[in-house]
């Protein structure tokens, strides 16, 4: 059942068992949702009807007499992957979706979790770096094309986006561009659309944005990411936050801890004012993932070097709304040999490789 038609499964507590049975049969869901004042009171299934009949209730009796008053529900905050796992763990084929106020807002079936609604938002992947810290691995291979678990990092990243319905990709190239272009082509072999943006000279993350084809670029906010990142971030949630907050530019940030293994002495001049023993300082750091609205991209000058932190600073001073979005999911910047080695182990847990 399409989530857009979940209302067809709604009945009132005073509707008859016969009506509930008709809803279950017509919608082929094996469930009717008992709702009053937008609140989910319970659900009725084939099994509930059978048990009700055995208990002596006729088909003209009210559905509230046989409904399950404590059904399994899911929060509207769960993503598709989490819903699928919940339904598989509980061995159910469908699950009502409720918001934070307890109101019924939808119904998801297990089959829904295998199909992903397409998103028109473009994805811009920065894949032009030299990868000098990973030499000699990158002597003849761009860093994003190094294989982790049998697949290039760039392919793993693209597949992650595909899982959330994204299919329009722009890839920025500079170092050994043919290696990337020969592998992905126009994207048709990967069920995506790929447009390449070549930097004649490195322009920085923000400067590369100016090379995008502004006339044909979709008007939806763009997701930008460094091409050497492995992550399980729910990009749909980040994008939804950006849209809901009406942000012009959103930066994903990570919580970063620095533990000082010594006592930190604070003071004025020669006088000690406090001693903090082995403190831990916490900061938000740039995760290399951004959501950029179309009006920002249009405002950029072509071929001017610009890093992303500077772009955020400039646009904030110009009155644009710039926000941060903390991420807690798995994230790894494959920038050094130790990171590359760690990625080979982590990919087994992420399920993104092809051993």
UniProtKB/TrEMBL annotation:
PANTHER family registered for this protein in UniProt: SUGAR-1-PHOSPHATE GUANYL TRANSFERASE
SMART domains reported in the protein's UniProt record: CBS
Matching CDD domains: CBS_pair_NTP_transferase_assoc, NTP_transferase_like_2
PROSITE patterns: CBS (PS51371)
Superkingdom of this protein's organism: Bacteria
InterPro entries found in the cross-reference section: CBS_dom (IPR000644), CBS_dom_sf (IPR046342), Mannose-1P_guanyltransferase (IPR050486), NTP_transferase_dom (IPR005835), Nucleotide-diphossugar_trans (IPR029044)
Record flagged with keyword RNA-binding: no
Organism, as annotated: Pseudoalteromonas maricaloris
Protein name: CBS domain-containing protein
